[in-house]
Amino acid sequence: MKPTIRDVARMANVSISTVSRVMNAPESVTKDKRQRVLEAIESLNYHPNALARGLIFKKSQLLGVLIPDIRNPYFGEIIRGMEDAAKQLGYNLMIYNTDRVPERIISYLDTLNKQQADGLLFVSDYVQRQYYETMQACGYPVVLVSTVSFEYELPSVKVDEEAAAFEAVSYLIEQGHQHIGLICFTLPDPISGQTRHDGFVRALERNNLHHCASYVEFATHWFEEAYAATSRLFDRYPHLTAVFACSDEFAMGVISCLHDRGIRVPDQVSVVGFDNLRMSWMTIPKLTTIAQPMYAIGWRAVEKMHEQLEFGEAAVLREWLPHELIVRESTLPMFHRPQHRE
Questions:
Q1: Do 254 and 301 lie in a common domain?
Q2: Nearest Cα to 158, choosing from 192, 133, 115?
Q3: Residue 58 exposed, middle or buried by CB count within 10 Å (0-12, 13-18, 19+)
Q4: Are 291 and 324 in contact (CB under 8 A)?
């Protein structure tokens, strides 16, 4: 039979509360009692029950994670970073798919409260007022992951997506491209759509390429939608020589659509993605893209949660991690293109 805290207390001839203090605040227990408890724990091979400890100290060591869709490989890398950090810091994760459905999100927020979760990691979604009010009512700390709120004082960790998109499009312009299209998340998506669209427009304006501002088609999240959006874009603007796609999956949809239309990448059209998913260097051609530090975002988010739980607040409210332009084979300078499309 598995030993209990009562067994430890009985063997050490101390109270249950003394055993608890030895495990969680040993300096508050006299040396003699502390030694007896430690010897009893070792003798019985006792491992404290996490839920029981939570009931005593009002901590469950559980962190809730709300993500839009686990099928998206972008979230997989973030969750891996979260998991590794949580293991190191002594937490467990509970992951919920929301599909960005408000009713489901509210329901999960309530569920986490009933399960006495210590905190919430809210991933890649817009913090609507009803979400914020529910979070406040539940009383647990929140960290925004790969998203940010300027309306509410919630700690967050992400990259500066507007600046990253600006760098991607500026790179294409430096390569001599004057007709650049955009496959973008639907607007006004405040998480990735609006910010990356704004970076695209700013790069055009900086370089007096205002005519490109209308070279835009929209999709929601998936390869198939990006494929269809690319078809619409090139039906309207067949003279494009470059495309900036707002995700790597979108970029793969672009490349596939262009291949089916007999347009070669990068010989005739250069393509830049966003994220640097693992499969971005498995494509043919290998994808030039903006790299987000996805693992580091997940890891840092758990660290920020730990800061709140241990010290009452995060050291930095809104934290911006660096991005990087990774140049591979899907882009080519205009003057190096072996054949121009009429």
A1: no
A2: 192
A3: exposed
A4: yes
Could you tell me if 71 and 153 lie in one domain? yes
Contact between 250 and 219 under an 8 Å Cβ cutoff? The reply is: yes
**Is residue 250 located within the same domain as residue 140?**
no
Tokens 């911006």, residue located: 320
DSSP one-letter code for 283: S
Q: 241 lies in which domain range?
A: 161-292+326-336
54-89 per-position pLDDT tens digit: 444 457 899 999 999 988 999 999 999 999 999 999
- Asked if 321 and 297 count as a contact pair (C-beta separation under 8 A), the reply is yes
Alpha-carbon 213 to chain mean position: 28
- Structural domain contains residue 81: yes
Element (H, E) at 181: strand 180-185
Q: Tell if the pTM clears 0.85, that is, is over it.
A: no
Question: What is d(CA 174, CA 192) in angstroms, rounded to the nearest whole number?
Answer: 24
Whether the CB-CB separation of 11 and 35 falls below 8 Å is answered with no
CA dist 165 → 159, 195, 287 (Å)? 11, 8, 15
The answer as to whether 341 is a domain residue is no
* Phi then psi dihedrals of residue 39, to 5 deg: -65, -40
